[in-house]
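User: Hi! Is it possible to get a structure for several chains at once, not just one? Here's what I have:
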Amino acid sequence: MKARALSVVLIVALFLLVTPIVSAQDEVVISWWTEPNSVPTNIQELFIDPWNEAHPGYRLEITEHEDLNNVLRTAITAGEAPDIIQSPGASFIAEFVNAGLVQPLDDYAAQWGWEDRLLPWAFQSGFIGGKLYSVPLTYESMILMYNRTLFEEKGWTPPTNLEEFEALAEAAVAEGIYPLIYGNVGWQPTNEHLVGIYLNNVAGPENVYKALIGEKPWTDPEFVEAMELLRTHIADKGWFSGGLENYFAIGWDDYWPTLSSGEAAMMMIGTWGFWGVGAFEETGTEWDWAPLPVFHERAGEYNYELATGSTLSINAASEHPDVAAEVIDFLLSDPDRVLDMSATQSFGEWMVPVRITPEDFPEGVDERFVRFFSDFAKVTGEGRIGYTTWTFWPAGPNVQLWEEIELVWYGELSVEDYLANHQAAWDEARAAGAVLNVPAPGVAE
Amino acid sequence: MAATSLHREAHQARRRQQISGWLFVVPVLLLNLIVVVIPSIAGLGMAFTDWSGVGSMNFVGLANFRQLLQDQVFFKALIHNLIWTVFFLTIPVALGLLGAYLLSGIKRGQMFFRVAYFIPYVIAAVVNAQLWRFLLNPRIGIGPALAKCCGITFLDVAIFGSRDLALFGVAFVDMWHFWGFLLVLYLAAMSAVDVELYEVARLDGAGRLQQFRYVTLPSIRPTLVFTILMITIWSGLVFDYVYIITGGGPANASEVMGTYLYTSAFERFKSGYAAAVGVFMTLWVAIATGGFVLLRRLGWEI
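Assistant: Yes, the chains can be modeled jointly so their relative placement is included. Here is the combined structure:
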């Protein structure tokens, strides 16, 4: 009797054990690898669960991977990559395209009207060789963040041009305050943020655009002037973190306590910086942001640099490309969901460039975030755009740009030689067909 | 006839023994073939291509090596590896020898010191590196704290951000975690030295320094030479602490071959070129090992 009861219990237990396995085996997994520490905290309930419910028989699996790009490059070469390929930017997709490892998205875009859902420049940034290969997961721009409490105390206002910027920097130094905090510890490409800002705001977006499309050499005087001014500010004047030595020894963890405590007045950073403003609550100070100052009249009125943070593509080897495309479409289909998810990251991550209006933002969202996205839409809509290096530069010239600038700052390489090397890197990339789609200034909408 | 049969049986037994010996070795050889030999040959082959790490690869002959021999950053990295080697062959070895010699005279509490000195060696490189990055932070590290509280300013510099100090700063952190390992090795070697040798030396009037020079050092020579060989090899392959703390910067001031290989492959996407750097690193190891073998052949007791 006991033996029979035991048998029944064992069979039931075995059945219970096997049932979920069988059920899980019936489901087709759609895989997507993403960067860690940037995923919306509510992604499960707002994105994964609703998608799974709407797609019976399929299960969306989003997993976080450190050093994602390198992990992906290895996996995609080995034929083991996920269905959805997330890259750090459009320029990284080019070599996957050349190797036939990702597939065109034109048919899906046409089927679901992605062009109408996305901001025009963001949609265009995914084209390589006339075909759409990626859509942005997040967009960003460069801004000037500052300690508003400190500015009010000192009677300062955010600078709008070179004269105001230099006067404010001198005033801050005189008070024993770093005019700007920034550093590249933990992420050497941080250098490119500054290079891009000075190229856009000294040489001007028109000239940068011409150089990007190959109509103007990077060795022209406007670019020399831009890099000379950056060298003066960072190396000669030491306005970034008090000097080069500090710049090379300071990273993200130092930015926020320094800025919020008033040890530093300002920071030129991308809108991912919104993610760090919680530090101001700890010090009881207030932060704010302003457009970057324009350093030369040829750069015109202030602009916003266009940047896509990460991009999404579909693995050419995916067994379910249509379903993977449905995941992307689900992401682009609901602006409210985008804002609700991105709100958990202070709109610094997963801010998909779908068309939104200020009214779309959830109740209670900080006015400063809404002000940025509203102004960004207005200004870029008027065609006042700049170009970020990680979105519009091919990988080769991009790496040269942020690596060799350190030699310029230390006086080991002249600005002229640096830009000549940059031009050579561009020539190589252009010959290899690695050039990306670039929207012209003045015609963003 | 009987002798022939015996001889055949002995021969067969020897063969069986040889075959069973090989059978034991085969799994390890296969493993070695899969994880060492084949990737090494593939790496060597890759050095003659323009592979980016993704997609097709084209044979470019010696182009990568020609470019490498004209690459100033690579030569800077190579020189840094040489500086690193000299640094590690002197300071940690001297500290390890001194520490082990002093500790060998202690009977009570020796284990405590052994453990204390050895602990940094078993902590992950990334933890040690972050710890020292925090300690030497130019804002909140010990440098500015000492300057503020006591007026001691010599440490109030951004060591990892300074072109003159970055390489030595990283080497210091690596040495901090490494020298305890040498100490334990030398201590173990010293404990095996016949105490009678010291007694004889003392009777001959040798002081502690002379005992160390004429008894300890010759007695632990195999261990000492082994560590020198390993330090030379490891110094050519150094990567982790440099990559974590400075990434080779600022402006290549702490670049070593290992970080240059990594950035070539994973930032500039030049896997073929990176493989050529790898070939030079292998050459470094071959020269160090070859030198060691040569000295043995020449009759050195090492």
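The two ends of chain B are 50 Å apart (CA to CA). The mean pLDDT of chain B is 92.

User: Great, thank you!
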